[in-house]
Amino acid sequence: MTEEPVIYNSVAPLRNVQAMAQLLDRVQKRDRDLPGMACFYGPSGFGKTTAAAWNANRTRAYWVQMKSAWTAKKLCSSILEDVGIVPKRTIADQVDQISDELAKSGRPLLIDEADYLVSRGMIEIVRDIYESSKATIVLIGEEGAAAEAAEVGAGARPHARLGGRPARRPARGRDPRRHPLQGDRSRRGPAEADPDRLERQRAAHLRQPRPGPRACAHPRPEPDGGGGLGQERLLHRGGARAAEDLGVRRPADSAMAAPRQAIWTEARRRPQAVSAWVIAERTGVLRKTVSDYLRALERAGHLALVIDAEAEGDRVYVLVRDTGHEAPRVRRDGSAVAQGGGVEAMWRTMQVLGEFTAAEVSHHATTERGAVSEATAATYVSVLAKAGYLRKVRAAQSRLARPAVYRLVRRTGPKPPQVQRVKRVYDPNTGEVHGAEPEPHGARPRALEPA
User: Fold this and answer.
1) Model-level pTM greater than 0.70?
2) CA angle (68 as vertex; 63, 74 as ends), nearest 5
3) Does residue 246 have a pLDDT over 80?
């Protein structure tokens, strides 16, 4: 019997949300001889998109929504854009790119509106991706999508590769608005379990000394449950020139992300001979920065030292664990960095839902990976609306207890826009900085939840 996942702090344990969670867990933990493709289908309005949004955050899945006018090349390029990889020219090369990334990252792929895969004759493209990667792929669509997908295809039949396809059911009246485990303080998210935690963190954050304008050290990792907005503390000088030209700074994690991504990309190009001095010459990153990151990757198990040397730059490593395009986020001791996970979950939720309220963003972004409070989601939504990423489609109506509804109108890429202390938004996908001031929300409209 499949163990039901615990839903924290947020989305009601609707049968469809839990059914999709069980389906993903069953397919991801399958035996190697069992199929890795599955179909999650049901009539419109049964909560398929809600289930997809929460489970995409829970598993960090890649998500793409099909459209009726899409071609096979547009499908492949959209998947690669969600991954963060520049697509190659031909469809065959793009299929290879997708398959390689899914195989190495181990993250699932969710394809919404999968009915168009059949009507547009693109189901074979998805099957080729699965055959090359053996990754978890879930097709989400209307009730007839599974039957049609199982009947379409040449040679080996797709239904031989499709896993469980549970028919979805409407919500019951006794489905609670909140999970019954919320009454147990020990099972809540960190923000809900200790209501005074945020005030203590905010007071400690204000007491910390701020660095001068010439500070160029790496930012010190701070403890984070995944729900903070990841504010800047120290600035890496080499990664913030574009932002400095505008008179503002990048967030600290972005200042580190750009050189680390360049180092990781170069290491993947030459996996048998990874050295600091070669990468520094090819990327323009300081050799000390490259050496520190390579040492952290070695401690995390991504690299293995094959030639030791007294000088850090002369050491040669071999790439032994490739986790895909995204650079591993690790500290100097090799431990994983969880900071910024809440912002990533909120941005992914906005992309999946399209239209939402701040409460819905908080609910869908809260998983076992970390809790995102409604105040944090409201501030983030407000700042993105001021920066032009969101458009308010319905104003809040306090008398009717109706919150404001927003629509995502600017999709710039998979990386979430990040808020700075000066209330500006830095977009790591485009390198642009936008000015924004948050709208009032509650008693403390400008309070950002500290990391």
Assistant:
1) no
2) 55
3) no
